[in-house]
Amino acid sequence: MITTFLGHELKAFWRSKNTGKSIAIRVVMALLILYLFGCILFIGLILDKFLAGAFPHDDIVISFCGILLLYFLFDLVMRMQLQELPTLRVQPYLHLPIKRNTVVLYLAFTAMLSAFNLWPVILFFPFILKIILTDSGGLPALAFILAILGFMLFNNYLALFIKRKANLNGWVFLVFVALLALIITGDFRFHLYSIRNVSYLYFGHLLGKPALALLPVVLAIAMYYINFAYLKQNLYLEELSSRKASAYKSSTEFPLLSRFGKVGDLVANELKLIFRNKRPRSALVMGLFFMFYGLIFYTNSHYGETWYIFVGMFMTGIFIINYGQFMYSWQGAHFDGILVSKINFRDFLKAKYLLFTMVSTVAFILTTPYAYFGWRIVLVHFVMYLWNIGVNTTIVLFFANRNAKSINLSKGASFNWEGVGATQMLISFPLMITPYVIYLPFSLFKHANIGLTMLAATGIIFVLTRDFWVKKLEEDFIEKRYTIAEGFRNK
């Protein structure tokens, strides 16, 4: 049946009306992936020389054992952001005599067909064959290979399990991200322990006790069966009957939004669109990842307040930038219906402003723990929060009127440039440059406080004059609405 499923997906691909475009994208992606694998293979071939230069006082085998867990920790973070969930349209098979285990087995099998599963093979196997096999013999080399493959599959199924659970409950993802952040900061910031030492404690013992390689293999098998059981139990969750669906109360119903009337209803619908579809949801997830962006800059004294402006703008406004620039593209599939509906476009714009203000407010609150590095940083974040909900929101919505490329909501964001065009490239210039045009003249003459005050005042002025900007954006949209609609039709 696995070959049958693969055959059906290939037929669906070749018979799609967008086959030509999909092939072109896949060819480009294949070339990029091959180039990336070539770079990784080159690093793998010279890994012994790299380790000797990076850790000159350690034996290269000790250094190699010390970096393996660090790699798999980084690998897990990258999988959470970039690895796609394997999918299969199960609805056509529901009425056929096909066992549920067979469908789940197919999903579990395709989960292994990920580029992430080739990285450790290309990166670490040359070192194992070149150094460990030569110095310690075949059994320790085999133990290292089994251990690396075990951790690779464990990460693979752990990331997929957490992402599936997070699709139903967003708190699962937040708790997992917080746990990863604590592990990383506990080592690199507070030095409570050393991940390198823990890594060597395990992998170093593989040289004398190769049987320990079975531990990650057992963990990988256990995580596989956890995934298998979870998929089997929830396989048809999206295809439940209408009776059960009606009994389910959506988590995106926010009573607090009812006080905003029609605008609140539009925001509630927007939130449902975000939580129920991959591409817009990934814009929100990326915003959560950017909450840790400050750890790069605030832990290094070389970065001054000029950089804090940049960091504060991104951490409190990344959702506005990532999501807002595709304002109409999210509704591209039913944009004609919006044009002929009774929705007042001014309310539509106000809903966008309200949504961005809500998310940016939450983002600012999440960044307040950076007060650990000084209350001045929180002040800069607040100033840029005002700038984002005032100025940047208006700039983003202005450029959104010039984007007429539709987006498939069900596709993930990883290596997906659908809907991205020249508009998205141009928008970066005013977003990056404008705050510095105001701030730098005062900062250069040692009046940074006045510069921050001017930024905050400009943001407040834009917030207070929001009705004026909504009117101007509405007029701009009315002028371009048919051009936008035509662009969405030409998929």
From TrEMBL:
Pfam families: DUF5687. This is ABC-2 type transport system permease protein. The chain crosses the membrane at residues 23-47, 59-82, 103-129, 141-159, 171-191, 211-231, 282-301, 307-330, 351-372, 378-400, 421-442, 448-465. Keywords: Membrane, Transmembrane, Transmembrane helix. The keyword Manganese does not apply. InterPro entries: DUF5687.
